[in-house]
Amino acid sequence: MKRRDFVIKSSLASSAALYAPTVLAYGTPSANETINVGVIGTGDRGGGLIPFINQIPNMRVVACCDIIPFRLSSGLSKVEGKAKGYSDYKKMLEDKDVDAVLVATPFSTHSKIAIDALKAGKHVYGEKTMAKGYEGIAELVSAAEESNSIFQTGHQYHSSRLYSHVVDEIKNGKIGKITAFECQWNRNGNWRRPVPDPKWERMINWRMYREFSGGLLAELCSHQLDFANWVMGAMPEKVMGIGGIDYWKDGRETYDNIHLIYSYPEGVRASFTCLTSNAMGDYKVKVMGDKGTYILDYAKAWFYPEGSYEKKIGEVDGVSGATLNWDQDRGIPIQFDHEDPSKQALIDFRDNIVNNTLPVSNAKTGAMAATCVQMGLDAMYDEVIMSKPQQG
C-alpha cells in the first residue's frame, strides 16, 4: 500500500475521545481472574518486562517464544514458576493456556504477529512502535476493531500517573496556550548488541537495518511523539527532518542522529532530537506555553512559570535565604507518587482485560504515533516535507 492510498479514519484525526477508558460490550469481568501471558520476543525489551509481570498480582508468564535459542533460554530463566518455550509464535498461539501475549519482536514483525494473535482470540500488548509502514498500521487497526480481544499499544507513558497528571494540568490551562514542544533523547553508545555468531547479526542487531527497523525515531522518539499527540489531541499536519550515519561507521543503515520538526495545528511546533554520540540531557520533554513550561524526564516533572514568581524563601542546611521547592533551570518539582511506567502499563493491561475497558493507549492512538513515525522516516530518507496522510 502506497502512502497516497493510506486513509486515516476520521476518528484518528481528532483524538481527544481516544484517551478516556471505555467499557466494551463483550466478555464477563472477573476480579479474581489470573491472566496467563505468553511473551513473544524475549530480547532486551520482552525479557526486561518479565520481572515486572512476576510482581503483578493475577498476572503470570506461562510461555515464552523466541527464534534465537539463547534469548529464549534467557527469557525462560526470568519467569517465576513454570513456562513453556516456543521457537514458533504460531505454536504458542495454539496454546489454550495462554490468555494474552506481549509482542516484543523487531518492529517490522509487529503487525503480522499482533494480527495473528488477535485472530487466535488472544489479548495483545503490542510494543511500540505499533506497526511499520502505512499498510501494516492500517491492517492492525482493522484487526483490532474487528476483534473481541483487548489490544494495548506499549507506549507506557500513557499509563504513567505522573504523565497523566501533567496532561490534565496542561488541558486545564496550567501553562496557558501551548506554543511549542522540545523533545530529546540523547545517548552516548553504539546501540549495537554483541553477536556470538555472525549468522545472528541481522536478527540481533535488527535496529541497524531499514528492512526491520525505524531506527531512533521508532525505537525512542515515538514515545515523545505519542505524548505530543496526547497533549494536542491531534496529529501533526507536516514534518521536516534530517539525519545521518555520521559517527558510527559500522555498516548500519539506520541513522545515528536525527533532528525533526513536526507542525501541529494552530502553529504549534514540536522538535525531536536523538543522538547516539553524546548523552547530554539524556531524555527530556518540554511543553511550552505562554504561562509556563512543564519539563518531564523518565519519572519526574517540573513546572516553570512564566514571568515573576515569588519563590519560597527559607533556611536550607543552615543557609538563610536559600530557595525551597525550586530546581535551578527546571522550576518547581512536581511531587507525585507513581509506579514505574512500564510496570503500570502492564497493570493497566491486566485491568483492561479483566474489566473489558478500552486502553488509553489503544490501536488508534498507537496508529497515530506510528503514522507520525512513518511520516518522519519518509521526510528524512526522501529529503522532503511530508504532509499528514489523507483523512477519510
Automatic annotation (TrEMBL):
Signal peptide from the UniProt entry: 1-25
* Pfam families named among the record's database cross-references: GFO_IDH_MocA, GFO_IDH_MocA_C
Instruction: List the keywords (alphabetical).
Output: Signal
Q: Which InterPro entries match?
A: Gfo/Idh/MocA-like_OxRdtase_C (IPR004104), Gfo/Idh/MocA-like_OxRdtase_N (IPR000683), Gfo/Idh/MocA_oxidrdct_glycsds (IPR050463), NAD(P)-bd_dom_sf (IPR036291)
Residue stretches making up the Gfo/Idh/MocA-like oxidoreductase C-terminal domain = 169-379
Tell me yes or no: is Signal among this UniProt entry's keywords. yes
Which Gene3D superfamilies does the UniProt entry name for this protein? Dihydrodipicolinate Reductase, domain 2, NAD(P)-binding Rossmann-like Domain
**Ranges of residues in domain Gfo/Idh/MocA-like oxidoreductase N-terminal:** 35-155
User: What protein am I looking at?
Assistant: Gfo/Idh/MocA family oxidoreductase
Its source organism is Flagellimonas abyssi
The opening ranks of the lineage are: Bacteria, Pseudomonadati, Bacteroidota, Flavobacteriia, Flavobacteriales
